UniProtKB/TrEMBL annotation:
It comes from the Bacteria. Residues 1-20, 232-257 are annotated as: Disordered. InterPro entries: UCP010219. It comes from Streptomyces erythrogriseus. The keyword Secreted does not apply. This is DUF3159 domain-containing protein. Pfam families: DUF3159 (PF11361). The keyword Transmembrane applies.
């Protein structure tokens, strides 16, 4: 290999920085969206509901089993002192579905609150992207320790967040376009199995596109590190001022002597 063929230090450093940025992005997305465990907690209650209902057509048993497993997952997270936001969101979603289905007596209504939530979330992604405040940026900004700095100081990341929000919105709208007609035309088991099948693939596609957009974007501005640096600089200025203040009287005393 000639000297021209060897990678330069700058190229190696750039490759390392790019790899680090991708790793940070992957870790942040994994944390924000719950990872494999979060996906399991999202799918399991609905899977249990449709499985039991397919076998015995018993709404009460199916609904209570789904709610029970959601509560168990919360208790397990609490016992292990893990983050419970994903498990709690699952409990609330299942709880609304159970209440709604029990009130109407229609097993398909177990899925309706979640479907309406998906539709509302899709519209929120699209509207915020159009307004220049993409929802995915509001969600991931604190995870990347950049808060809202991307809005005014990092236009490349704002563009990436906007693209990601559009991707999430359109993917969720496509999911709704499949589910809502089935809610009216299909029976409970058909709707349930399709909904379970559509839980993970659209989610993974949206997360992958978000990763692609952010991996190509400029790195986040760590506003927490900036605030800590400003605090240290302010403390150093105060210490220097105190030292000057203590040294000044001694200097005047020597001149008077």
């Amino acid at each position: 290999m000639t000297s021209l063929d060897r990678p330069t230090t700058e190229e190696t450093s750039a490759d390392t920085s790019a790899d680090d940025a991708r790793a940070v992005t992957e870790a942040a997305l994994f944390e924000a969206f719950g990872g494999v465990r979060g996906m399991v907690e999202t799918v399991l209650p609905g899977l249990l509901f449709v499985s039991i209902y397919t076998v015995n057509k018993n709404l009460h048993m199916s609904a209570l089993a789904a709610l029970g497993v959601a509560l168990v997952m919360v208790v397990v997270r609490l016992a292990r002192r893990d983050t419970v936001k994903h498990a709690f969101s699952g409990v609330f979603g299942v709880g609304f579905g159970v209440v709604f289905a029990m009130m109407t007596g229609n097993a398909k209504d177990f899925y309706l609150p979640g479907m309406l939530y998906t539709l509302g979330l899709a519209l929120a992604y699209i509207v915020t992207a159009m307004a220049g405040v993409p929802l995915i940026g509001l969600m991931l900004g604190p995870v990347f320790k950049e808060n809202l700095s991307w809005r005014t100081r990092n236009p490349g990341r704002k563009k990436a967040y906007t693209k990601a929000s559009w991707a999430w919105g359109l993917i969720l709208l496509a999911k709704c376009a499949i589910l809502f007609p089935l809610y009216w035309w299909a029976d409970t088991t058909q709707l349930g199995w399709v909904l379970v099948a559509l839980k993970i693939p659209p989610f993974l596609l949206a997360v992958y596109l978000t990763w692609v957009f952010l991996a190509k974007a400029p790195p986040p501005i760590d506003v927490f590190a900036e605030m800590e640096a400003e605090e240290r600089a302010e403390e150093e200025r105060k210490a220097a001022a105190e030292e000057e203040g203590e040294g000044a009287p001694a200097g005047r005393h020597r001149r008077q002597s």
